[in-house]
Design brief:
single chain, alpha+beta, paralog of FGE (formylglycine-generating enzyme), 4-stranded antiparallel sheet, 4-stranded mixed sheet, 9 helices, globular, binds calcium ion
Length: 385
């Protein structure tokens, strides 16, 4: 590889391990222990929040500068002039077009977070009253076919394409696809920093989207997600909106369908991991890796795969300290600035024993230009244009 990257793991600063292809085989000792999970170990199992990009000074990245919520225009700016295209007045879009494939989520008061956090370090608590206005939410995660249309219309280049790589879970790759990989993450060796991996080549070399047009787009950064939603005349949901939508109108539930892992009748509610991570993925829920975005039953708001399948970006900057107020906070938007964004819902790599984050209250984070094979998004939209 011709560049390095850094990994922040909790308070530790860890370096990359360089390994030859023959040294990359994983052992069960690489598995996260239950203790790791209880400690909320970042990057454990499904989390890709240990993954952070960096570029040599000779190749400054156009998105490297800090951005604030008020500065969204700068986030999608680049030398290609794409931002000009994306700044076309959204009002010109037909509202019917904008809300096609979206569900109207009724506003209301709900309890955000939990007083029984599984990962206290993630800032899952405290449980606090929040009110959100009504809004529209994509029924599904954004599928590859839709993202392809965006790229075709705008010529947009994702962060992973600009960097020339992204992080892929090793089990998704053939031996031939693993061959060009020179770096894995020391603290989470199942993440391979894979040359040429991007939304259209999810496993790098010799991978494509054949048979995955209806699967969620992955390897998209927060910047990419914002650009796509803007092109659609939409926006990313706030964390509060996402969690309200996940809960489907129910209070104090772990999952969008209830408190038990399986739905009534023993049906799987989310595409997660069954078996021993990271070597034995039985795919008992019907899917070893990503699943079509419209598979599995919806929640009471008609939304599919809010938990599991792929993590979903939100608009909010990451913060683990939340005020417990007596009066509900209306439409919270998170901190005004930061270095990472909140992602919600967990992914196909999650299992209770090591990454129990496929709960509505669970949360994790990534840098604005980070991407991985288990990270996607869906858009929201305001009710009033
Ligand atoms: Ca699965
Ligand atoms: Ca999801």
């Amino acid at each position: 590889m011709n560049f390095t990257f850094r990994i922040l793991l909790l308070l530790s600063f860890l370096c990359l391990s360089r390994s030859s292809a023959s040294e990359k085989s994983l052992s069960l000792e690489d598995s996260c222990s239950a203790k790791d999970a209880e400690d909320g170990k970042a990057g454990c199992g499904c989390g890709s929040n240990a993954l952070k990009r960096d570029l040599p000074a000779s190749n400054p990245h156009p998105h490297a500068k800090q951005a604030s919520l008020e500065d969204d225009e700068s986030i999608v700016s680049d030398e290609s002039g794409l931002n000009d295209k994306l700044s076309q007045p959204e009002a010109a879009k037909d509202k019917e077009d904008v809300i096609r494939g979206m569900k109207l989520i009724p506003g209301g008061k709900f309890t955000m977070g939990t007083d029984d956090p599984h990962f206290p370090a993630d800032g899952e608590g405290p449980a606090r009253p929040v009110i959100v206005d009504q809004f529209y939410m994509d029924e599904t995660e954004v599928p590859n076919a839709d993202f392809a249309q965006f790229v075709e219309d705008t010529g947009y280049k994702t962060d992973s394409e600009k960097y020339g790589n992204s992080f892929v879970f090793f089990g998704q790759m053939t031996e031939a696809q693993q061959e060009p990989v020179k770096e894995s993450v020391a603290a989470a060796p199942w993440w391979y920093n894979t040359p040429t991996a991007s939304w259209k080549s999810p496993e790098g070399t010799e991978s494509d989207l054949r048979d995955r047009q209806d699967h969620p787009v992955v390897h998209v950064s927060w910047n990419d997600a914002v650009a796509y939603c803007k092109w659609k005349g939409k926006r990313l949901p706030t964390e509060a909106e996402w969690e309200f939508a996940c809960r489907g109108g129910a209070e104090n539930q772990l999952f969008p369908w209830g408190n038990k892992l399986l739905r009534k009748g023993g049906q799987h509610g989310a595409n997660i991991w069954q078996g021993d991570f990271p070597l034995n993925n039985t795919g008992e829920d019907g899917f070893k890796w990503t699943a079509p975005v419209d598979s599995l039953p919806p929640n009471k708001f008609g939304l599919k795969q809010m938990t599991g399948n792929v993590w979903e970006w939100t608009a909010d900057y990451w913060n683990v300290h939340h005020q417990k107020t007596k009066e509900p906070v209306k439409n919270p938007k998170g901190p005004k600035s930061g270095e990472e964004k909140v992602k919600k819902g967990g992914s196909f790599l999650c299992h209770k024993s090591y990454c129990y984050r496929y709960r509505c209250a669970a949360r994790s984070q990534n840098g604005l230009d980070s991407a991985a094979s288990n990270l996607g998004f869906r858009c929201a939209a305001d009710v009033e244009a």
